[in-house]
Structure formats: C-alpha cells, structure tokens
Amino acid sequence: MTNSQKMKENRLCLALTESTLSKNVDIINKYKNYINMLELRADFLKSEELDQLNRFPQMTGLPVILTIRREKEGGTFKGSEKERIKLLNNAVSVNNTKHYAFVDIEDDFHNQDLENRINSNGTRIIRSLHDTDGIPENLADILKGLRQGPNDIPKAAVTPASTKDLISLIKVFKELEGQEKILLGMGSFGFITRILAPALGSYLSYVSAPDGNQAAPGHIAPDTMQELYRYKNINKKTKIYGVIGNPIMHSFSPKIHNKGFIKSGIDAVYLPIHIDRIEDYFTLAELLDIKGISITIPHKQSIIRHLENVDETVEKIGACNTLHKGNKKGWTGYNSDAWGFIEPLNSIFKKDSLSGKKITVVGAGGAARAIVYILQKKGASVLILNRTEEKAQKLAEDFNCSWGGLNSRGIEKTYDYNDIIVQTTNAGMYPDIHSDPFSDYSFTGKEIFYETIYNPPVTKLMQRAINAGCKVISGKEMLINQALKQFYLFTGKQFPCKNEIEFGKY
Ligand code: NAP
Q1: Per residue in 359-384, pLDDT tens?
Q2: Which of 26, 145, 205, 436 has the largest count of CB atoms under 10 Å?
Q3: Which strands make up the sheet holding 268-274, listed edge to edge?
Q4: What atom in ligand 1 is closest to the CA of residue 319?
Q5: What is the pTM of this model?
Q6: Which residues on neighbouring strands pair with residue 108, listed in sequence order?
Q7: Ligand 1: does its nearest atom lie under 6 Å from the Cβ of 482?
Q8: Pocket test for ligand 1, best of 387, 436, 484 (most atoms within 8 A of CB)
C-alpha cells in the first residue's frame, strides 16, 4: 500500500519519544502494523542527534510530523528559540521527496522565512495550541484563527477537567464539522475524543509506545487503540456504548464488550467515559447519540431518578448498572449484577433452586443488595453480616433475612449459614490486597466460597477458602456474566466468545 493510500485510512500517529533516531526506528518497526503516521518528538532526542533531523523521513516509510516541543507546552526542549528555529530550518532544508510531511509549530510562533521554507517543498504546517489546565472559552474561534495559510492544519490539545468541559469540547467538534483540524482532549475526561477522532472529525489521533516516554497525558498504546478499540474502523455511523463512573479508566468492561462487538461483526465501540455529575451524562449521551451504557461507582443509585423506565430488578434492588435506549421512549434501566452473580450458581445447582440452602453474605452495600435480592428470589435463607451492623439490619429487614455484625457473634452464626459464603465488601480489593474481612472464620472445606472482588483475581480470603478445599467462584465470573447480560440488552444477541475474554491484555 502506498503512503497516499494509507493516508485515506483513519490516521493514527505514533509519537516517537526515544533518545536516538535509530531507537525510534525500532519502535516504528514494533508497531508498524497499527499506525500510518509518525510524529518525531525531537525534543526527546539527545543533543548530538539533532543535526541529523533532516535524515529521519528517509529512515521511515510513513508520513512524519516534526515537532520540537517547548517546556511550556509540555515538551522537553530546553534550548533558546533561536536554536529551535535553526534546527527546524535545517530539518526541512532537503531537496529530495523524502521530507517531513508536517511540521508542528505553536500558535504564538511566527517566523515567515521558516514558514515559507516549510511550505515550499510541500510540507504542511500544523499550528498548535496546548492547554494543559483546561479548555479556552472561545476554542472554535481560536482554531479558525490558527489556519493562517491555506495548507495549515489547526490543532488544539486541551484538558477537560469535568464532564461539562468534555461536553463543551464535543460542541466545538460539532461547530467545526467538515473543517480540517486536529482536536483532542487530554486526560481521563478527554479520553473518548482520542478514540472517536475519526467520527468526531479530527484529522488524526496520537498514540505512544507503552514502554517509552508518554508524549502527552492520555496516549494509549497503538495495539490497544487498534485491537481493543478498533480505531481503524471508527466512523460517523459507529454506534457508541460505554461504561460511566468516577473514576473509570481502570474498568475491565471495555475488554469484554469490544471483543463481543468485534466477534459479532457489529459496528460499535465501547468506551470508558469519565462522568463526575450524573446529570451531565444525559447531555453527553444526546450529543454523541450513545446507545447503551454500563454504570459503575458512584452512579448506580443516583441515576435512577433520571430514568423514564426501570425493570423490576432496579426497583427491588434500588441500583441500576445498565441503560439501554430501546424502542421505548427514553432510557430504560436494568440491573445485571444480580443475574451475573447467580449464573455460576445456576450452573452448579442446575435446575435445582437454592431452596433450603443457608447462605452468609458478608457486606451490606450495593452489590450485597443485588445478591441478597436474587438469593431470596431463588429460595435461599440468608444471613447478612456487615461491619456497620445497622446497614446489615436495614438490608435484612428489606428482604426478610437474618443479620449480624462482622464480629464473633456474627461469625458464630455463620457456621449455621455456610452452604455458601459470599464476600461482597471492598476489603481485599486492590490496592488493599492484604485485608481479609472474614479472618476469624475458619473454613470447613465444605462451603462454596463466592468472592465478588475481581481485582486481584484471588483475594487473601479466597486463598484461605482454596487452601481449606472449598469450591470457589471468583468475582471475574460475576463480572463477565453481568456484562454478557448487558451485551444481550444492548444488541439482542448472545455474547459470542465468553472463553476468549482476557483481562490481562492491553
Ligand atoms: P459499597 O456499596 O460501597 O459497599 C461497600 C461494602 O464494603 C459495605 O458493606 C462496607 O461496610 C464494606 N466494607 C468496606 N471496607 C470494609 C472493610 N475494610 N472491612 C469490612 N467491610 C468493609 O460497594 P459495592 O458496590 O457493594 O461493591 C463492593 C464490592 O463488590 C467491590 O469490591 C466490588 O469490586 C464488588 N463488585 C463486584 C462486581 C462483579 O461483577 N464482580 C459487581 C459489583 C460489585 P460498611 O457498611 O461498614 O461501610
């Protein structure tokens, strides 16, 4: 494929931040299957490499952007402006066809001689603005003003600090629709603009090698961009799904749903979307035409009052972890946690119900509520133990169960409710991996132990249960099963590849 053919694809630009030109070539070779453009961040090069800048385009088979970024824009170039101009002049002064495709200079940079030289051999100027603290109010006008020559590409890399900021950035994309520009949001609130660049109308998106210096906050690895988010296929018609939470970037859900979309041949992408105020989700969803959403901490309860329709599980549990825009007007809320939790037990007990089973649930938070609801529905007798006893009592009263504290009396009762023990607290979850919320309980080996934490894959408490010979079910199984239910709600299709989900990858 020729370079000009490649440029018609969604443009994915690998920012090169190694200390020598040859090390940068090694990085290109490593990721060449995922990218179709390069940005040489010459500010990361050793000083002795800088007089070789004009050779670099010949060392690569791809269009290259040359950038020597100053410290005030987040770069590492410490020399004077005179030295920088000299370096840029030398770098673009080549008479063969293998020259830089673009030179990135900042919005306040003016040197007509250099700009003429850049333009004279067909190199285009990217005129860029960087805001590492926020988003300038009149960003659309600023971008228009950055197009100073007919071939210039205006660029703004800005930092949304809230969902509200992200909304204003998406509005700038809409206002400048059809106009050539590079526009991206840095940091976790801006993350989705990097993935959706081709749909929103950014000329390119940037990635960095994970093993080197990150060129800007929010860059992800080239293989993650292509294999997890299938960047090369993103287009205006790609349906948008995601998971909302605060924080959100740690979520495993994109690894599940994106795999399902790819395997099912559905033109859709599933993104981690950082939402601080739940009200702002609905504005964002309208702007991006989001089709379905998973909801995680802290929005599972607060979202309910904004919904037109909820199913029975949301009503009973009082928490919602899935929204879908189906045929009904507005969003419908579901809770797939209860379903995800019970699936592994259904496979163990087959058609038998849990009637007669005596089960202890440790914890009385949101997850426990979904779990107690479904256990009761299946006919089990449940004992709820919680650090804060009043919460155990409240949950027990709502679902007609027994209750107690996480103390010696509570533990004593457990020996009478130990067909299954379900752990639903945060204790033992990364980074608190040395905690064991049930340390005074001694497993007999006959219990089924069910851990809802999925990170780490084996908690300290779960390891004790394994050592005692118990059958164990991991939080990963619950997580995957609740996501499978969501996938069905989103698409009307069964998840195609449950056994291929890999949490470790990307
Ligand atoms: P939540 O509503 O905040 O409830 C937290 C619960 O943990 C409360 O009962 C709290 O007790 C207890 N707790 C926290 N720290 C503790 C400690 N150091 N010792 C003893 N108890 C402690 O949270 P949630 O939404 O229920 O989530 C809880 C857990 O479930 C998380 O680990 C999450 O990963 C897991 N989860 C897993 C899945 C899955 O798909 N696998 C789905 C949902 C949730 P107090 O009332 O005394 O504060």
Answers
A1: 999 999 989 999 999 999 999 999 99
A2: 205
A3: 268-274, 239-245, 290-295, 322-324, 332-334, 309-310
A4: 25
A5: 0.93
A6: none
A7: yes
A8: 387
